Amino acid sequence: MSATLAALLAAQEIIVTGQGLGSTKGDAAYDVVSIDRSRIETSASGRMEDLLRDAAGFQQFRRSDSRSAHPTSQGATLRGLGGNASTRALVLLDGVPMVDPFGGWIGWAALDPARIGHIRVTRGGGTGALGPGALAGTIELTSATPDQIGSVNASIAYGSRESIDADVTVGAKLGGGYAILSAGHAQGDGFVPIVEEQRGAIDRAARYRQSRASARAVMPLGEATELQANGSLLVDRRDRGLPFTGNGNVAVDSSLRLVGHGDWGWEAASWLQLRQFSSGFAAANATRTAVNRSLDQYRVPATGVGGRFEIRPPLGDRVTLRLGGDARRVTGRTQETVFSTSVDRRAGGRQDVLGAFAEASFEADPKLVLTASGRIDHWSIDHGYISEFSRTTGLATANARTFADRSGDETTARGGIAWSPLGALTVRAAAYTGWRLPTLNELYRPFRTASDSTLANAALNPERVRGIDGGFDFHPLPGWRMGVTVFDNRLEDAIANVTVAANTRQRQNLSAIRSRGIELDAEASWREWRGILSWSHTAAKVRSNGAAAPLAGLRPAQTPRDQASATLEWRRGDLRAATTVRYVGKQFEDDLNRLTLDDAVTVDAVVGVPIGRGFTAELRAENLGNARVEATRATDGTIERATPRTLWFALRYAVR
Question: Which keywords does the record carry (predicted)?
Fold first, then answer.
């Protein structure tokens, strides 16, 4: 074969990326944290929500992970904009939203790090082109490619409390594209959530059993167009450590994305989410010797469908223009039996959001980049209802009602500037607005935790954020980076659980949550060593009046003042070791700041030793010092803890 013919064939080779159109130069104006595949592989827990704590400021409503937490408490937020369990960050997998269509929480157990190639966390609201819902930031997960995982990547681990964690991922190049299949299973006897000195005869270990599977195919449809198809299944069963408190979640996600990489870059995506959730609730007596069944939320079906389109006209190397739109519809309802009042209840509704966006990035010169975006969204909430009947008489109760349909429009914008006076230094500043529609869960579903009840509120308004931030990124050497950001956010009409009576709260709109702070991130690599550091300090205060006036000046519930994470890695070929130290500051369980959750320091460690023929033996330790990480504190003083010390022995197998 002649050199000319070989060059011609190489030029005609079709290369698929498996990714979307990618970021723009204007993203340099925002506060971004990247977590690469190498770091993902050294997680002691193997849990996505734990890895995300590398970006200090990330938090869930509870400190527990998806093995022991109640699924409805596992939202995601950043920058101290907490206060309830709904997600205030936009979470995407390959460009598709992952937020639960009914409740706004995240099914973290489905997002297995073994199949993820890269994580990108953008702190700060207003996504512009990526969709609505990013009040606190955006978390973008990208699936791994065969080059990252090899043809086979599998592991099986045995850990404390009869725990088993196994997964296998298989990748193959097919017809110019590739396919990846992944499956996993985790189960364990779990730990007793109630702290030891408060346990009674009714307390037991919180068992869990979780199975997951996913398939992904990427194939070329021409010289510059590729099709990406994703599908996943999660079957999640957990117990809350008390009789009658089991919960389950079945989640099916599927998506199609077409990406055009030609002169006119474009992409079109559609997705479908199917959910089936159930949960039981119970209340213990003061001595924890007896338990009463209080609520059986036996069926919560929900559906989310959506689509998105974007086009990038060819305007030269210095200008990137993004134009497009997106749409989403969610429907869902709760079906439950309330034993404490002998009532059968159904409640739910439907939401629609239709939006359009434009975003431009302009490289004024090699040292200066400007970016601006805007979007307009039309939303509607309709078919809302509560159907409630007495189990004794069969008659409708006074709570049974239908709610008036509502709709509105939201206009938001984001802009920033990045200036590089020196090659290693970039100074940046950004301003943004964003919004979030209250979830069907917040609008219509009451819930109960131990002896504490939280009421729904069908009259909730959307949340809206306004914020600014500024800072710098310094790259003195390859592999070395330090970033510092200061920020000031105001979340108006913030939805919080407000105390309205003894042991009773209701979801209400506060006037605002004001959150200001500083974030520091650093990374340094030297030969076989790498260090990663992240720290956030947040001063968040509630602004309120009317019925919520007692909350004015208090800190939002579940919002620590300080969070920090530090990881030290050593790697020589397949031989590796890593340790991670994390700190979470004191925070309050409740809106009135009367119930305190103590601060905590945890240490994780991982050691992997290759033993030949593609096998690696691995020792992992979570919370090595067995620190007491308090997750909840009830009004009666009962304390639940998060994951205690957990030791693992794992065997990994990889074929590159």
Answer: Cell outer membrane, Membrane, Receptor, Signal, TonB box, Transmembrane, Transmembrane beta strand, Transport
